[in-house]
Amino acid sequence: MFPPVAPCCPVGHTEDMGSFKKSSERNFFKPLHSAECGRHVQELYVLYCCYRLGWLFSWLPAWCPTSLLHLKEAEDKMLKCITSTYNKRYVYLANGNKIWTLTFSPDLSRKTPLVLLHGFGGGVGMWALNFEELCENRTVHAFDLLGFGRSSRPHFDTDAREAENQFVESIEEWRKEMGLEKMILLGHNLGGFLAAAYSLKYPSRSKPCSAFKTRFQTKICIDV
Fold first, then answer.
1. Cα angle: 185, vertex 190, 195; to 5 degrees
2. CA 131 to chain centre
3. In-domain check, residue 71
4. 196-214: string of b/e by CB count within 10 Å (b at 16+)?
5. CA separation (Å) from 3 to 6, 8, 46, 208?
6. Mind listing the pLDDT tens digit for each residue in 119-129?
7. What is the DSSP secondary-structure string of 163-223?
8. Do residue 113 and residue 170 come from a single domain?
9. Which residue in 38, 84, 103, 116 has its CB near the most CB atoms, within 10 A?
């Protein structure tokens, strides 16, 4: 709201500017002292506040407790295109956090399993168009990183290195809980960064994904 401006002195007015300004301000602000005008100003202020906060109310409903149900429904819709059978469950970590995990072709465990790490703001659903081809010859696991999808929302350190380490350690703990000796990490966006960070810290537990045929790599680039 803008402050009221006093009217200008008329051309040719004989009264000096100082006295005219004082007189004008008294006359201009006098109505503001009335009860009716006061209520009007309050109503305008309330409307102004509602307008400014409109953006806040517009997205608040998306973060109500039912969002978990909406997330499940959205994920189910994304995975409807998959005809292969798969397992889905929470993997619980020692610190109480849980990681939402999908497993395809668990009977093909003789080969090193492939583990998919999604990108920032994503989840297991982003791999929906890739699962069936990738799980033809080996077991494939995909999980929601902590802080994303249906996994837990822990507090992350504000220091970048510490936050990175939290992600890496959660992946390592997930590996132990899944009983995997080694795994091939394939990541997209943030997932690619974390795959590299994990491999640097635990080189004996990860294998490079260069063994994939070009057809698979091209398919992933197109569908993701």
1. 25
2. 23
3. yes
4. ebbbeebeebbbeeeeeee
5. 10, 15, 17, 66
6. 999 999 999 99
7. HHHHHHHHHHHHHHHHT-S-EEEEE-THHHHHHHHHHHH-TTTEE-STTS-HHHHHHHHHH
8. yes
9. 116
In angstroms, the CA 131 to CA 82 distance is 8
| Residue 1 resides in a domain | no
Amino acid at residue number 88: K
The DSSP bridge partners found for residue 127 are none
> Could you give the angle at the alpha carbon of 99 between the alpha carbons of 93 and 101, nearest 5°?
125
Q: Would you say residue 10 lies in a domain?
A: no
**68, amino acid identity:** L
Domain that holds residue 94: 65-223
Q: How far apart are CA 171 and CA 164, in angstroms?
A: 11
Per residue in 184-206, pLDDT (tens digit) is 999 999 999 999 999 999 999 99
Number of domains in the chain: 2
50 lies in the same domain as 86: no
CA distance 137 to 111: 8
